[in-house]
Amino acid sequence: MDTAQASATTKTVTFRIWRQDGPGGEGHYDEFRIPYSKGANVVSCLMEIQRNPVTVQGKKVAPVVWDAACLEEVCGSCAMNINGRVRMACSALIDKLEQPITLEPMRKFPVVRDLAVNRDRMFEALKRVKGWIPVDGTHNLGPGPRQSPKDQATMYVLSTCITCGSCLEACPQVTLDNAFVGAAAISQARLFNMHPTGEMNAEERTRALMGPGGVQDCGKAQNCVKVCPKEIPLVTSIAAMNREVSKVLIKDIFFKEEEKKGHGGPG
Amino acid sequence: MAAAARFTVVGGGLAGLMTTIKLAEAGHHVDVLSIVPVKRSHSVCAQGGINGAVNTKGEGDHPDIHVKDTLRGGDFLAEQVSVKGMCYAAPGIIYMLDRMGVTFNRTSEGLLDFRRFGGTLHHRTAFAGATTGQQLLYALDEQVRRYESEGKVTKYEYWEWLGTVKDEAGRCIGSVALDLRTMEIRTFPAEAVCLATGGPGIVFGRSTNSIINTGTAAGRAYLEGALYANGEFIQVHPTSIPGEDKLRLMSESVRGEGGRVWVPKKKGDTRSPRDIPDSERWYFLEEKYPKYKNLVPRDVATREIFTVCRDLGMGIGGKDGVYLDVTHIPAPTLDAKIKGVMEIYEKFVGDDPRKTPMVIFPGMHYSMGGLYVTFEADSRTLTPAEGSPKNQSTNIPGLYAAGEADYAFHGANRLGANSLLSCIYSGMIGGPAMAAYAKNNATSAEAKSDKYFADAKKYWDDRFATIKKMAGAENPYQISKELGELMTENCTVVRYNDRLKKTVEKIRELKGRWKDCNVLDTGSVANRSLSFTNQLWNMLELGEVIATSALLRDESRGAHYKPDFSLPEPKSKDPTQDPEWMALWKKRHEKWAKTTIAKHSEEGPKISYEDISTPVLEPEPRWYA
Q1: Active site residue: B206, B220, B298, B588, which one?
Q2: CA distances from B235 to A32, A156, B414 (A)
Q3: Given its phi and psi angles, is residue B21 left (phi above 0), alpha (psi -120 to 50 degrees) or beta?
Q4: Is residue B431 within 8 Å of B414, Cβ to Cβ?
Q5: CB distance B164 to B189 below 8 Å
Q6: How many CB atoms are closer than 10 A to CB B485?
Q7: How far apart are the C-alpha atoms of A15 and A101, rounded to whole Å?
Q8: pLDDT value at position A83?
């Protein structure tokens, strides 16, 4: 009997949910059982629990705290571990999950409460790689550079990153307290380096990925690409930025040699 | 005021971020308050595109035609000066976004591509796949991050705006906000504050909106004396997938790229859609509207689908639902242009829309109404005067509104792909307006007496302490669900006065029940039930405004449809050829060509009307057949 049939017969859905009152504290699991409804997903079930936050043991508890907004996998809010695998809660359909459904927060980010985590490090990483096009201003300056549909298609996919954190969660190199920027930011650096205007600052972005926490901290486990809900070619991005970094390193060595020879001055 | 002043922008969607960029670019400091990281704001959900009469398709498109389409689409209730300014600014806005690196789709020559959208006959919509809102939001988010790293912008993410701080003259001199993680309440002094807080979708329970779109900030501003205009104009999008938790939008771009709406000609036909031959399908929009076909404005398409399902009983399997069919379009074309929506359907319904027609039904989508704002017209161009402090200003001095939170740009019905545009345009003129307002002020907000800020903080500390002690019998999330069902049932596609009257009464009952709420959570970290219980009151207030405004407007216009007060069908296909009908239309129009204005009072919303001004375009009957 598959899980869909099982839940249809019992007409309930059972959850085992990680509860933690605040950052750094101890935690435990609460068990909830709610009525089954067709097409339900993890978020719709959490909403159902909000309306009646009582555990299987009959204990009244606070509603579960989790992050969610768009419920269509485009805002990036609701990433969490569902039955041990990181994914977006809104697109996790109950019919396709084994019960009891275990919900846990991502482990590579500090827990705020229950399933909500603090993903500030991802946004800081975007600052580090200068993930933007440095435009002259917002006044009328005419159209941007022409681009081929082929380049657009490549860049569009990179630009659909929702900063959900799945790639960091799945990465063995990322820990709660290390500085590795992770696949998302590396891929964003590639995106902006590809853009005809962004290319003008490409070296700056590439240099930001050198040194501790940079692209060379990647251990090539390739877990990131497997869990990305937007199917972004993260491994390709990492390889591309690794090449960029190598080029800059070679250039640095070459120029240092030049300097030693005394040819390196201005002009 | 010092040359560089401090401002607060509330909301990190397109309107908020554009306002922020304009202020930071002018050298000011901006505190951005947002209940979520700004990159997760609801603008991210917009799919189809952004309008601008760039005219690259040799169709003779022009901003004036965009103005006309927009005003006609809104059944002549939109604020005309702001609409003209927006449409004329649109090509420049699209180019600016292009320079910021938005991954717009391209033509083979490498130029921006444009597609068709509803309510126009031109290819006017620039797009980035079918996730244009996401791509636009990211572009502005990146520019704001750049200012943030330069120290010109400070983001307060997971902070909720609670209310204004006012001085003795009633000027807004700052805000009170709540840290949604630590539950700390603090004040933010500002020369001016902009509410770019989006629409009230969650007042309707399930909608195409993100669950953060409760309208709480606009509701609170209304309670504090800001006027709320045209609340009754709620857009119900013709094509969404009904779900347990939300109604997922299937973009208008699906029809823009050739998608066709149909039902089986035979009532209750049980065959699979692919087994029904073309001759046995009823393409009801194409039949009734040979010129615009599937791309009639949203309110028109929604009513037709409603009629087919509810009045004629011709919905698929006798239920609510019609086919939206793209199976005749090659899959690579679909993937290049609307992959985002194809994936949503596939993920949430389980069928591949490239192979099987989608089943869709209308869903609450957008509020045309919002906080009342003004504009100062440049008498020469009839567009908002550059740098005027009046633009985007509410009736509370120092308080501005932009984006879906304002009422101005869309009248009685919004055209698809005009929302991203109005968000960005309102920010582009709102930011400079706030700076100009501050420049004209003699004393800065920071120099104002500490007492105003201390009092405001105390008010909110006390209010939250009171709510936190609420231990009654009612679950706030349950009340919210009931409000949503009530609003969806009575304040969406078809409206009747007796039901609206009952709706207002029931909302008052819910307000009574709110007082018996149980806050459910006594935690001191990220206590979401506590913040939600506070929000819920503001949602109930807005619900009352929307229902009361709908009750009192006895006509049909745009998204507001009352069968009991609709004009008869004209005898001629072109209504201007039917003088009797024209006389009726004129009489009706003259009576109701007015902006609805709601003002808060203890007894409920006080509704008044303001005549619309028509310097740009004289109203005419709105007709698409």
Answers
A1: B298
A2: 37, 30, 7
A3: alpha
A4: no
A5: no
A6: 13
A7: 5
A8: 98
Long-range contacts of B182-188 (CB under 8 A, 24+ apart): B182/B525, B183/B464, B183/B524, B183/B525, B183/B526, B183/B527, B183/B530, B185/B457, B185/B460, B185/B461, B185/B464, B186/B457, B187/B453, B187/B456, B187/B457, B188/B8, B188/B31, B188/B33, B188/B156
Q: What is the DSSP string of B432-462?
A: HHHHHHHHH-SS-GGGS-HHHHHHHHHHHHH
Comparing CB atoms, the residue among A69, A91, A156 nearest residue B36 is A69
| Residue B271 appears among annotated catalytic residues | no
- Pair type for strands B6-10 and B193-195: parallel
> Domain-by-domain residue ranges, chain A?
11-117, 120-259
Structural tokens at position B105 = 């789709």
Amino acid at B246: K
Contact at CB, B95 and A138, closer than 8 angstroms: no
B143 contacts on A by Cβ (under 8 Å): 132, 135
**Stretch (H or E) spanning B407:** none
pTM over 0.90: yes
pLDDT beyond 90 at A57:
yes
pLDDT category at A267 given cuts 50, 70, 90 is very low
What are the phi and psi torsion angles at B228 (to 5°)?
A: -115, 125
Residues of A in Cβ contact (< 8 Å) with B96:
135, 138, 140-141
Longest dimension (CA), chain B: 75
Nearest to B301 by CA among B240, B345, B233: B240
Rounded distance between C-alpha atoms, residue B389 and residue B374, angstroms = 10
Distance CA B558, CA B548 (A): 17
Partnered with residue A35 across adjacent β-strands are A12
- Class for domain A120-259, per CATH? mainly alpha
**Distance (Å) of CA B348 to CA A81, A242, B272:** 19, 37, 20
- Distance in angstroms (rounded) separating the CA atoms of residues B240 and B253: 13
Residue B359's contacts (CB-CB under 8 Å, 6 or more residues apart) are B241, B316, B321, B322, B323, B324, B349
> Which residue from B319, B268, B381 is spatially nearest to B616, judged by alpha carbons?
B381
A96-129 residue pLDDT tens? 999 999 999 999 999 999 999 999 999 999 999 9
Contact A203, A241 (CB under 8 A): no
Integer angstrom CA distances of residue B623 from B46, B75, B234, B352, B569 = 27, 10, 20, 36, 11
Taking 50 as the pLDDT cut, the residues of chain B under it are: 1
Cα–Cα distances in Å, from B598 out to B221, B488, B537?
12, 21, 17
User: Token pair of B59, please?
Assistant: 């169709």
**C-alpha span between A112 and A115 (Å, rounded):** 8
The SS3 call for residue A75 is: coil
Whether A73 contacts A166, CB under 8 Å:
no
Picking from A51, A133, A153, the nearest residue to B101 by CB comes out as: A133
Q: Which CATH number is correct for A11-117, 3.40.50.2300, 3.10.20.30, 2.60.120.10, 3.40.50.300?
A: 3.10.20.30
Asked if A144 is an interface residue toward chain B (Cβ–Cβ < 8 A), one would say yes
What is the interface size between A and B, counted as CB pairs within 8 Å? 194
CB B306, CB B362: distance < 8 Å: yes
Q: CA angle at residue B532 from B178 to B482, to 5 degrees?
A: 160
Separation between Cα atoms, residue A83 and residue A98, nearest integer Å: 8
Peptide bond preceding A100 in cis form (omega within 30 of 0): yes
Q: What does the pLDDT look like over B256-314, one tens digit per residue?
A: 999 999 999 999 899 999 999 999 999 999 999 999 999 999 999 999 999 999 999 99
Give CA–CA dist B59/B64, Å, rounded. 14
pLDDT value of position A1: 39
Q: What is the CA radius of gyration of chain A?
A: 23
